[in-house]
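Hi Y.,

Following your request, here is the sequence exactly as I used it, all 185 residues.
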Amino acid sequence: MLTAMFFVLSKLLDVALAPLFWALTLVVAGLDLRGRGLRPWRRWSPVAGVLVLYAFSVEPVAQSLTAACEGLAPRTFQPDRQYDAAIVLGGLVEGSQPSVAEPVSYNQNVERLLAGYELLRRGLAGFAILSGGNWGPTSAEPPEAEVLADQLAAWGIPRERLVVEPKSRNTRENAVFAARIARER
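Below is the corresponding structure, written out as tokens. Let me know if you'd prefer a different format.
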């Protein structure tokens, strides 16, 4: 129950904290209330919405915010060390795979898969734990982790070196379920 609640809350907060949500909210608030006694904030609300959208869209602001968030993550990789396993978190397959004959589309997080592949290819990791399930509860698509395993196998990584975790639906679940597998093995 707690996992389901956290999943729903994470998706709602993802939308509610996004600058686009606030920009659109400001624009709509100003437009919707325009005919009902123009108070200064109602008049400037659409302008503020456009400014919020612009401010968070310009490259220096976006890069600064990304650097601030990513700078908090500790770097633990040691290039001269042999690892038991590499964990490849989901969230990199874009949309759905139209058919088996068509290639999978990846988003900007594809470096997760490429880094895991390099560790496996160079022998720096014995296994890869591929974490990622279906976003919806009744999706007919294969879990994301299965798609990633197919890709790594197509690149020449033996299937016995790939451990699939197909149930996680967000980053937190990726980490929790992958850690459980790592502890068990």
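The first strand starts at residue 83 and ends at 88.

Thanks again,
Q.
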